[in-house]
Write the structure tokens for this entry.
Amino acid sequence: EAQVTQNPRYLITVTGKKLTVTCSQNMNHEYMSWYRQDPGLGLRQIYYSMNVEVTDKGDVPEGYKVSRKEKRNFPLILESPSPNQTSLYFCASSSGTAGEKLLFGSGTQLSVL
Amino acid sequence: GENVEQHPSTLSVQEGDSAVIKCTYSDSASNYFPWYKQELGKGPQLIIDIRSNVGEKKDQRIAVTLNKTAKHFSLHITETQPEDSAVYFCAASTGRNNRLAFGKGNQVVVIP
């Protein structure tokens, strides 16, 4: 079954404690992306990757890092989380060019205290 | 950059009636317009998309229409059912690498 898998599903942490949210896809997609969803603000892109070792900033990249060492994985790293990064995070992948026909993961609810 | 706006923010319809959600976009160069449905506790799911060289596309009870001159596109759901209750997001491709800019979402409630 084609899917994008994120872990963990829920995460509560404290300010400044580094964390990583993992994302994996099993469809050999070249394009992967991270979004955050906040009430009243919709989906905003954090980072995206067009292929292995190719990453670029989205609309709200501050405070986040990503890496794309292999095609299937695209982890999101928060080196020093802050309360304003409390949000619902989604990973997505696509076989098309950039944002076409995105397949989203189930989401990671992050709370930074 | 691209600015995508959705109206209305919340829409309530009686079961069996039609629902229409409209999105406007700002970048005339945008050429791809998808609609996503997000059910409670789940990730967004693509339900229909349209390219700028097509004016209308239909898939069973769902249709999307595009007016490039006015820079708006609409989602039409006919014969609504309770399972159509969800948040719907529109988006438009824009700029470098055709990234998607999403609207803020519409809450659709189908009243049985």
Summary: The mean pLDDT of chain B is 93.
